[in-house]
Amino acid sequence: KQEVTQIPAALSVPEGENLVLNCSFTDSAIYNLQWFRQDPGKGLTSLLLIQSSQREQTSGRLNASLDKSSGRSTLYIAASQPGDSATYLCAVGGATNKLIFGTGTLLAVQP
Amino acid sequence: ETGVTQSPTHLIKTRGQQVTLRCSSQSGHNTVSWYQQALGQGPQFIFQYYREEENGRGNFPPRFSGLQFPNYSSELNVNALELDDSALYLCASSSGLAGVSTDTQYFGPGTRLTVL
């Protein structure tokens, strides 16, 4: 049974700092991995999608990497801003495209 | 191109009642998935519909049921509501072949259901 874990559960950093969020999964037989952002009480915004054949994806200040063999992904945020404050969720997609989510990392960027 | 929309935004029901939640998928998407997100948790997969047929189901009882319409919009129905059904219900749409979709899933804003 696939399980997804995100560490840390919460993180507080000063504005401008570079940071890394971690995601691990137990079954390497995945089709893709997706990172989402969720603001309080809101839906999910897709940030990056990494296919199983890819190693990383970049969008602006965000870079996500995937190491299937070790069951790990990281989301790197450069030059963090207060507007980056949110919960970040990673989810792995299997053959049925059902997404299995971690419990998220709550990020607070202090001005 | 419109995004994924859901209605209603908020809903309050009492235990034992029935509820219907609605989702309009993003233009061009033929697959809709529903998720339940309890407070402080990650979303849990309920089921997925592809071209009006159920295409996978998570660990939810039969009182959770759904429909997908020819325009690919979808409904989630929950009968005999329980207190633990209180959650944010999210739908997501995507495109691709059933069972083998590698496309991004786009989520709606969710419906907040409170069961008293």
Give a short account of the largest sheet of chain A: 6 strands, mixed
Mean pLDDT over the full residue set of chain B: 91
Apparent shape of chain B: globular
Q: Kindly report the oligomeric state of this protein.
A: heterodimer
The gyration radius over C-alpha positions of chain B equals 13 Å
Order of helices and strands of chain A: EEEEEEEEEEE
- Overall morphology of chain A: globular
> What amount of the residues of chain B lies in strands?
over 45%
Could you name the ranges of chain A where pLDDT drops below 50 across 5 or more consecutive residues?
Answer: none
Tally of DSSP β-strands of chain B: 11
Distance between the termini of chain B: 38 Å
Radius of gyration of chain A: 13 Å
Structural class of chain A: mainly beta
Measured between the Cα atoms of the first and last residue of chain A, the distance is 41 Å
Q: Number of helix segments of chain B?
A: 0
